[in-house]
Amino acid sequence: SVVSEISSDIVIELMDTQFLLHKFPLLSKCGRLQKLAAEARQSKKDKLELFDFPGSLEAFEVCAKFCYGITITLSALNIVAARSAAEYLEMNEDIEKRESDFQTRARCIDAIACKALVSPSKVDWSYTNTRSFQGKEEGTSQNATSPMGNGIHSWRCHPVPKDWWVEDVAELEIDLYWRVMVAIKSAGMISHEVIGEALRIYAFRWLPGISKEITHNHSLDYADIAAKHGHLLETIVSLLPAEKGSTSCSFLLKLLRAATILGSSPSLKMELARRVGLQLEEASLNDLLIPSLSYANETLYDVDLVQTILDHFMMQNQSLPTSPACTTHAYEKRRTRSTENIDFVESRTSTAATHSAKLKVAKLVDAYLIEISRDANLPISKFVALSEAIPDFARPVHDDLYKAIDIYLQEHPGFTKSERKRICRLLDCKKLSTEACMHAAQNDRLPLRVVVQVLYFEQVRAAIAGGGGVGVNELASNLKALISAEE
């Protein structure tokens, strides 16, 4: 053993002899010992055995002393054995350099994370905040900028915001950024809203100009660019906080659009769809108009994806599924970006969608139906399924739904009588406004039964408004006879 004040933490057995040594000096310079130590941890062995070591005990001692920085003497008697032992142990400059680089990176990551955890009241250095500067130009920000007007803020000018660090950290390349953000999140001192804002800034910094047109670029570099952006997107999604509202619904839908364009995995898209569904009432129509890029799907927009999002929104009233148990073996391995997302499933709470949220989503879905109804390739089944996903109470007025149906019938003049009836069963004529009733009464695209129902309920409404009711029963009988004749 090596005499030291520090107790040994590694045992190496060689030719029935045990060496009580220390990991740091040995593993930092010996590639083979690094591998054996990793295997020993997995198999829970308490020593490393070098069965096929090509040399004597003295040759190993020479290599060990070199690792400890002890002066060694090489001569014609031991140079060959020492060289063979060093090659066996995979001792080379690259090992030491990689270890040094790794330690340097680790120290830098810890330093950056510690800086980000500093309370804003104690920040006494400059930082980047172009968001405040842009807001000031528009007259919407109270924050001051440096005299240069370049977004570099001086702590003396204005109060420091909680997210003062997010733009500076956004300059890191993705793998370093992931490690820094994991360190920051693990500390538990930064709010989930600030973490969400940091991810939003990073996404807009490194995912610029993603649009449908990018799919038509057939250059040789496109595959590499898409792979790089896909890796970046997956990393950002893995870092999303578990808490609802950490990021805006609009931002989540932009990530979902990017995932569709980049051809990301179905699991990644479903993860984003689930998150969007939890706060769908915040979405806008433009956010939902995600292009359909599947060769098997000829529709203009990805209606199936919106249906999935809507299903997740409606499932908030139901009990959430229990997370699958995580085995001990799974946690012995390094946590990957994808496994970071298990926190979202485990910490998600069952928050039912409110009544007002469902009313907002119903209006949003009807607006979406109006938009997609212009698509000549949209199947009836998808139109009906999306419309029926909205509960009756959430759609107190059917005017927008009627408009969507009217446009859909107009764009599909070849529909059979039964197909038109199937579409129009979605309508509740009692929930149409007077203006919509007037339009429907003259709409020759509607089945006669629907027109008759519209006239009947409009007459009933007029009779009740006039304080009467006389003739309503007679009107009902006449209209019923008309419907029977039409059938």
From TrEMBL:
Residues 163-461 form the NPH3 domain. InterPro entries: NPH3/RPT2-like (IPR043454), NPH3_dom (IPR027356), SKP1/BTB/POZ_sf (IPR011333). Keywords: Ubl conjugation pathway. Pathway: Protein modification; protein ubiquitination. The keyword Transmembrane does not apply. The keyword Cytoplasm does not apply. SUPFAM superfamilies: POZ domain. This is NPH3 domain-containing protein. It comes from Taxus chinensis (Chinese yew).
